[in-house]
Amino acid sequence: MPPMPPKGDEKMLILSLPAIYSLELTSACSNCCPGCSNVYAADRSPPPLPASTWERWLEALAPEAVRLRLTGGEPTLHPEFHRILQAATAYDAWVTVFSNARWEDPATFVQRLSGLPHLSGLLVSLHGATPHSHEAYTRVPGSFEETVANIRLAIDGGISVAISTIITHHNWDRLDAVAALGEELGVDHVAFNRYLGHRLPGIETTPEEMRAAVEQVEALIDAGAPVRYGIGLPQCFAPNRSEGCPAGATYAAIDPWGNVRPCAHSPTVVGSLHQASMETLWHGEAMRAWRALMPIECQACAAYTICHGGCRAIQELRPAQRDPLRGRPLDDYTFPQPTHELPAEGRPHTSARLRPESFGYVLLGQGQAAPLRAEARPVIEACNGHSTLSQLASRFGQPAIDLIGELWIRGLIEMI
């Protein structure tokens, strides 16, 4: 048995506690996107929770987390946003701010973010390479130029920025232009996402447009462009290098009023942190029922461990109660694995920590959570910077080197 699950299997292993959280600080937003992913977007009236409440919850949740995403709405519109951000970045988890970059005082905002510990950067919504394509989604004239200008400002201020782009009817055939704009701006990467929500004619892509968009993303990846998929796609829809969603397995969302959901796109509320602990809600009946929303016919699919039958959230939101991109189960599938050559005299080192789990361990660090089988522990403990890869190969064999290589690709191991 290999020390690490085959690619995709780790998405089926349920952690004892989430390692990744979306903290939806406020429902307020300065854009008017008709395809807003927030299931509560129609009711933005209740005021958001005070910073003191978020500080209390962070004290309980952040020590076991590797990544915190501050989102909304537009999180920077929370009246105590900077206090919450300061609290979040006080822990070891990497913190990302998911924003539309339409800040009231951009220069001051960037200055206050500069130098914060554990701030991995900004994830900025930009839905096209032109004002037309972006503003067809945001419904705010001038928002494209404002967002692009503030991306430049943030990068010039030393803050890492990535772009999040929803693939729509207005941009599906110009994704290469979005990638080119991202490179010109100097962003870390562009994450392309399928639209998740109720049917949205005129905005949502047709299946044919979406297939063509996937082909563009795959071509960009092949060309070495800094692009990726932000949300997984069913492998039966079109061949792609996206991976399954971690919702309900390693990831959970908390809305502006303390309700816990398995996913930021899902309408399912499994309980409230005002009434129960995250551990209780994570292992509760409502969460178990949501995890079970996997199409029976998909379980025989050769790609099932990668995409898990598609998106559960859109399955909940559509009248047919199925992912509209889901096709026929595949009889044969192999996840494309890149080949990397590691230096034989390199000395692997990791500062990530092992947390015991029912299936073995999870390696936590660098914003990543990697489930491992129990027999992987000696290999991880030997990655202390003293032994070379050739020595580790003699001691543990090729499967251990494959594991080290996979963790190196994911940033959980470095070579010294």
Radius of gyration: 21 Å
Please report the total strand number as a whole number. Answer: 15
Structural class: alpha/beta
Strand order of the largest sheet: 7-6-5-4-3-2-1-8-9-10
- Contiguous helical run count: 14
Order of helices and strands: EHEHEHEHHEHEHEEEEHHHHEEEEHHHE
Span between N and C termini?
Answer: 28 Å
Mean pLDDT: 93
- Work out the helicity level: 25-40%
Strand content: 15-25%
Low-confidence stretches: 6-11
Shape: globular
Describe the main β-sheet briefly: 10 strands, mixed
What distinguishing features does this structure have?
single chain; 416 residues; alpha/beta; 10-stranded mixed β-sheet; 3-stranded antiparallel β-sheet; 14 helices; 15 strands; 16% strand; globular
A few lines on this structure:
The protein is an alpha/beta fold. Helix content is 30%, strand content 16%. Helix 7 links the parallel strand 6 and strand 7.
